[in-house]
Amino acid sequence: MNNSITHNILRFVFLVLIQIAIFNNINFLGYINPYPYVLFIVLFPIGDNRALLLFTSFLLGLTVDMFCNSGGMHAASCVTIAYIRPWILQSIFGLAYEYNAVKVVKAGFGQRLLFITILVFTHHLLLFLLESFNFSDIIYILKKTLFSGAFTVLLCLIFITLFSVKRR
Amino acid sequence: MQQIVNFFIKYRNFLLYVLLLFISLVFTIQSHSYHRSKFVNSANFLSGGIYSGLDNITAYFDLKVHNAQLVEENNRLRTKLLNTRDSISQKIDTATFHKRFRFITAKTINNNYTFKDNFLTLRAGSKDGLKQDLGVITSKGIVGIVDRTSTNYATVISILNSNSQINAKLKKSNHFGILVWRGGDPNIVDLIDVQSKAPVQKGDTIVTGGKSTIFPEGIGIGTIKSFELDPSENFYSIKVELFNDMTNIGYVYVIENLDREEIQTLEQQTADEQ
C-alpha cells in the first residue's frame, strides 16, 4: 500500500517535470504538442478512493496550468476524465472491473489501447475547446485534438512498455 | 435531515467533481480576460524556480544566436553613435537631463507560441523594478507587456496573445492601427483599423505608435506582408511579418515610461472635467 502511494507521487512529479521540460516544447509542425502527463490518471490504481483520484487529478491539471499560464484548462479536462474513468473502465473491461481484477498495465493490448485512446481524446478535446473558448474554430480544434491525441496515445503506450519492466 | 446527509454521501463524488470543475472553469474564464488569475501563473517561486533551472541548461543551445543578435545590435548602435555629428562634444548633464525611459534587462526563461494566449516568463521581478504594464522589447522589435510580477520573476503577455492590443503605425505616414494576433503562424500578426486613405505598400515598416504610455514611439514591429480592404472599404487589414523571431527570444529589455503617471493623471483630470 505504502509502496503504491510512493509510486504514484513519484509518477506525478516525473510526468509533470517531463511535460513542462520536454513535451511542452515539441511544437511539431508548429502547433502539435503531446500531453502524456494524463498517463497519471490512466495508471491511477483502480478501485481505490474515487474522491482521491478526482482531487489528485485536479492538482495535476492545476500544476501543469501553472507552468503553462493557462488558467484552469488542464485542471478542468483532467477532473472530467478522472470522473468518467470508472464508466469507461466498466464498459471496456466489464465483469473483470467489477471484481477489481483489472490492471491497465497487464491488460490486453486492444483493451489498453481503447482505454487510453478514449481518455486521451476526451481530455484533449476539452482542453482545446477551453483553450480557444470559441466554437467557430471547431475544425481547427478537432484537427489539433486528432493529431495531438494520436501523439499522446503513442507516447503513453511507449511509456507503459518502457516502465513496466516485469518485477519478479 | 437524514435524507440530506444520505444524499451527500451517495453523490459525494459527483459533488466533488462539480466543485473542482467549477473552480477550474473560474480560473479558465479569468485567464481569458486581460489581467488574469492572481494565483495560477508561472511567476511564482516554484514554477519560476524550475523554469530558471531548466533555462540554465537550455540556454547553451541558443547561445550562438543570442551572441549574433547582440553583435548586430552593437554594430547598429555604434554606427549610429559614430555617424551622429558632434556626438562627443555635445555634453549632456545627466543631473538635470530629463530622462523619459528607463531600461531593465531580463532573461527569458520560458516562451510559448503555440497556444491561443501565449505568455513568456522572465527572470526579473519586482525586485528589479518590474511592474504591471511595462513594455518588453528585444533589440529587433516588440515582444509584449508585463502582466504579473513576483519578487524574482515576471510573466509577459506576448504579442501572440488574443488579449494583446498594441497601438502601431506606418513608419512613413503616421497612419495608425491596432496590432492583434489571431492565432496560427507565430511570425505573422494583424494590423487592423488602418484608414483606407493610408498609403499602404508591401514591404513597408510598421513601428509602435506613440499613443500608449507603454511603448515609446518608433520601436520596430515588422514589415507588411500583404494587405486587403475590409468589405466596407473603410479600413485596411494588414498582415505584418515580425522582425523578431518569436520562437527564439533570449535577452529582452523592459521599458519603463517615467512620465507615465504624469500623463495618466493629466488624462484622468481631463476626462473628469468633461
From TrEMBL, chain A:
The chain crosses the membrane at residues 12-32, 38-64, 113-133, 145-165. It comes from the Bacteria. Keywords: Membrane, Transmembrane, Transmembrane helix. This is Rod shape-determining protein MreD.
UniProtKB/TrEMBL annotation, chain B:
GO terms for biological process: regulation of cell shape. Pfam families: MreC. Keywords: Cell shape. It comes from the Bacteria. Residues 109-256 form the Rod shape-determining protein MreC beta-barrel core domain. InterPro entries: Cell/Rod_1 (IPR042177), Cell/Rod_MreC_2 (IPR042175), MreC (IPR007221), MreC_beta-barrel_core (IPR055342). GO terms for cellular component: plasma membrane. PANTHER family: CELL SHAPE-DETERMINING PROTEIN MREC. Belongs to the MreC family. NCBIfam families: PRK13922.9-3. This is Cell shape-determining protein MreC. It comes from Leeuwenhoekiella blandensis (strain CECT 7118 / CCUG 51940 / KCTC 22103 / MED217).
